[in-house]
Amino acid sequence: MSNPVVIVGASLAGMNAARTLRLEGHDGPIVVLDGDSHRPYDRPPLSKQILSGEWDPERIVLAIANEDLGLDMRLGVRATGLSLADRTVETISSDGTEATLAFDGLVIASGAAARRLPGSDGVAGVHVVRTLDDSMALRSDLEAGPGRVVVIGAGFIGSEVASACRKRGLEVTLVEAMPVPLERILGAEMGAVCGRVHVENGVDLRLGTGVDHLETVTESDGSQRVVGVALTDGTTVAAEVVVVGIGVSVNTGWLDGSGLDLENGVVCDNTLLAAPGVVAAGDIARYPSERFGEMLRVEHWEHAIAGGEAAARRLLAEKRGEPGAIFDPVPWFWSDQYDRKIQLAGRPAPTDDFAVVHGSTDEFRFVTLYGREGRLVGVLGMNRPRHVIQLRGLLETGSSFDDACAKAAEL
C-alpha cells in the first residue's frame, strides 16, 4: 500500500483496529483521525467513576494509546467527507485548516453523538454525557452542590448518572417517557425491577411523562440558565442541573453523498465490509446477524473491541485476496448502578418469553433468561456475575430456551 490506512475515530473500536493491523502484519502508515483533542480514552467511566470524582481523567486513557504502534495520530482533526471514487477523506482541524487525505484502506469508527433536548443549546446547567469534556463539565456543576438534579431518560446512561449523583448525596429526579425504565430492552417486568432500584435508593422516579420545556432565567450577561423542567403531565420539577440521556445519533453526516449505504449507521456485510477497502466498526457499524436474524448495531464496550479487531482483519484479508471471517458475536455489556451490577448478554426483546431462574427480584439479586421461538436469546443478571458468565456461553452454542432453564437450575 502506497497510501495509508486511515482510521476515522480514535475510539475503542478505532484504536483496536489500529493495534490489530500492526500486530497482524501491516507495516505501512496508519493515520488515526479524531475531532476530540484528548488522547484516546475509555467511555464507560464517564458516567461512573469520572462523574463521581473517584477517578481523574488520566486514568481512563486507553492502554493502546501508550503502545508503540507507529501511528500517525491526528487529534483535533475531524473527517468531513468521503469520496469512494477518489479514495480520499476530507478533513478539517480545530484551527480551521482543511485537507484531503488519500487512503488505501479505510476504517470507519466515528461512533455516535448524544442526542440533545430541543431548545437546550447554550443553556447553562444542561448537560449530556458522551465525551470527556461533557463529563468534566457536568462534574464541575455537581461539585457546586446543586439543590436538585433532573435526569431525563432512564436508560443505562441516565440510570448511571442518577446513581453517581445520589452517591454525591444530591437530590435526583429521574424522568422517563415510557411506563417503566428499559422496557424496550428488558420488557415491562424486568424494567419495573430496575425502576424499583432507583426508588430504593431515594430517587424521585417520574414515569410515563416527557419534557414539555425547560424553565430558564436570564443572567446578568444575557445568558440563560436552567431552573426547572416542565413535564408533559403538567408538573414542574425545580432543577439547577439537568442531564439529558435520551440516546445517541450515529455520526454519519460526514458520509452523506459518499455512496455508502447509510441506514441507522454504516450498513456492512456480515464481515463488516461496507465497500471495497472500507470497513466499519463500533457504534456506527450495522451488519446482518444470522444468530439473531436481524440487522444489528451494537453500542457495547466489548463489541467495540471485537469489531475493531474484526474490521482490521477484514482489510488484511482483502489485501491478500481472501474472504473475510463472519462477524456475529453475542452482544454483552454491564452497568453499575448504586450497589447493583446489571449484566446483559444477547438480544432480548419485550415480547420474548422469560423466566427468573436464580435468586429474587425482590432482593435485586437474580438471573433472568429470555427465549424466542424456543431459542435462548438473552441472559440478564443483577448482582449474579458468576451465573451470568456461565449461562452466557449457552448463547454462543445456540441453546434452546428449555435447555438453558434446565442448565440454570443445576448451577
Mean pLDDT: 96
Task: Give the class-level CATH name of the largest domain.
Answer: Alpha Beta
Distance between the termini: 53 Å
The description of the largest β-sheet is: 6 strands, mixed
**CATH 2nd-level architecture of the largest domain:** 3-Layer(bba) Sandwich
Helix proportion range: 10-25%
Query: Please, how many helices?
Result: 9
CATH topology of the largest domain: FAD/NAD(P)-binding domain
Strand content: 25-35%
GO cellular component, one term: cytoplasm
Domain Reductase C-terminal: 332-404
InterPro entries: FAD-oxidoreductase/Apoptosis (IPR050446), FAD/NAD-bd_sf (IPR036188), FAD/NAD-binding_dom (IPR023753), FAD/NAD-linked_Rdtase_dimer_sf (IPR016156), Reductase_C (IPR028202)
GO molecular function: oxidoreductase activity, acting on NAD(P)H
List keywords for this structure.
411 residues; alpha/beta; FAD/NAD(P)-binding domain; Enolase-like, domain 1; 3 domains; 6-stranded mixed β-sheet; 5-stranded parallel β-sheet; 9 helices; 24% helix; 33% strand; globular
Which helices and strands, and how do they pair?
Layout: E1 5-8, H1 12-23, E2 30-34, H2 49-52, E3 72-75, E4 77-83, E5 88-93, E6 98-102, E7 105-108, E8 112-114, E9 123-124, E10 126-127, H3 132-143, E11 149-152, H4 156-167, E12 172-176, H5 183-186, H6 188-200, E13 204-207, E14 211-218, E15 224-231, E16 236-238, E17 241-244, E18 248-250, E19 266-267, E20 273-275, E21 278-280, E22 285-289, E23 294-296, H7 301-319, E24 332-337, E25 340-346, E26 353-360, E27 365-372, E28 375-382, H8 385-396, H9 401-410
Parallel strand pairs: 1-2, 1-7, 2-3, 7-21, 9-15, 10-17, 11-12, 11-17, 12-13, 19-22
Antiparallel strand pairs: 4-5, 5-6, 8-18, 14-15, 15-16, 20-21, 22-23, 24-25, 25-28, 26-27, 27-28
Helix pairs in contact: 1-7
